[in-house]
Amino acid sequence: MSNKKLLHIVCDYKAGGMEFGEIATQIYNHLDNPEQVLLHHTEVPPLDVVGLGFVTAQYALAPFQGERVIYGNAAPRRIQDQAQKDNLGEGIKYALLDNGAQVINVYSDYAFAFMKSHIVELREVECPVAGSQFRSRDFFPERVARLMNGDKRHLGKKLDPAKIPEIPSNQVAWTDGFGNIKTTMRASHLKSLGFEPGEKVRVTLNGVSMIGIIAVGGFAVDRGVLAINLGSSGYDDPFVELFLRVHYMSEQTAAVRFGYPVGGAEFEISRL
């Protein structure tokens, strides 16, 4: 068991869909010892680069004993509106973190931003970026597998992590399966704004305003009350969640009440 490796694949394809299956097939096809690699898939919403960065960082920064790689891909190709010759798009980059985790992400917007302060090495990955509409199957898996094999010959020039964009502290990052909205605001941000537990505030998101309570946890408020609390993501500086306490999923969760906001949607917390 000591030689097992963990590979997280985080992409904006439908969970259990053909795309994930094709990518996994190509990765296993290029692995020296595929029986030693434990592979896990995670779906993020289509074209959601904030969600991609959030999830890859959550996996990469988790306490873990062993070797792990996170491969992420959500590439909206928003660089320009004109037609792209040969399906040209963003390339992939490699990051080594201070805990030993290795990340290969398509370099789009906030792909590396949530782990920026933990990056000790950021490199180009020499790999085709045009010639296929499905680069994440035809080109990228081979590079991921080589990295899992310990082969780093395709790592190119060093990049400056300081040039990675900062994450704004007022955006939606991820909506979980229970309808709780995880945001890019951290505990330190909430503290700097001077909010105290028990304080009533107004939350405005996606054109909807709701009254909520600053809480120490989602279950520290009554049923049907919106809690603005520190969630389960973010480790030493947890991310703030918008948690509308319900007893059944047939009730309106925070995601429902705020109209299912997309990753990157801005919100505001204001005093009454």
Task: List SSEs in N-to-C order.
Answer: EHEHEEEEHHEEEHEEEEHE
Q: Flag low-confidence runs.
A: 77-89
Got a strand count? 14
| Helix fraction bin | 10-25%
What's the N-to-C terminus distance? 55 Å
The average pLDDT score comes to 89
Strand content: 25-35%
Radius of gyration equals: 20 Å
Structural class: alpha/beta
Please identify which CATH superfamily of the largest domain we are dealing with.
Answer: S-adenosyl-l-methionine hydroxide adenosyltransferase, N-terminal
Instruction: Give the helix tally.
Output: 6
Largest sheet: 7 strands, mixed
Principal-axis shape: elongated
User: Which CATH top level class of the largest domain fits?
Assistant: Alpha Beta
Give the CATH topology of the largest domain. Rossmann fold
Number of domains: 2
CATH architecture of the largest domain: 3-Layer(aba) Sandwich
